[in-house]
Amino acid sequence: MKRFIILEIGDSAYTEFRMKGGEFETTQDAILIDSIDANSKEEALEKLYLNLNHKDKDFDRLMICEVANTQYV
């Protein structure tokens, strides 16, 4: 089985930084939503939506990345 991380990018995942002049600028961020063991990206996404911890979240854009060289302890 493979390990995937799922990141949220887009309008629902942003922060602001205070600039030296005191004004705030928004940033493009990625937020780690979950780390899931699955056989494929599609299965990882399915497991994400079945996870009750994420039932009330409104995702904008999800990015699913396979983790390479994972060692389990």
Please tell me about this protein's structure.
- This protein has 73 residues and is mostly beta strands.
- It has 1 helix and 5 strands.
- The chain has one helix at residues 41-50, and strands at residues 2-9, 16-18, 24-26, 30-38, 61-66.
- Strands 4-1-5 form a 3-stranded antiparallel sheet, with helices on one face.
- The longest helix is centred in the middle third of the chain and has 10 residues, at 41-50.
- It starts with a strand and ends in a 7-residue tail after the last strand.
Count of alpha/pi helices: 1
Round the Cα radius of gyration to an integer and report it.
15 Å
Oligomer: single chain
Shape: elongated
Measure the end-to-end span. 15 Å
**Class from secondary-structure proportions:** mainly beta
Largest beta sheet, briefly?
3 strands, antiparallel
- What portion of the residues fall into strands of 2 or more residues? 35-45%
Mean pLDDT: 87
Number of strands: 5
How are strands sequenced across the largest beta sheet? Answer: 4-1-5
Uncertain stretches of 5 or more adjacent residues: none
Order of helices and strands: EEEEHE
Q: Give the proportion of residues in helices.
A: 10-25%
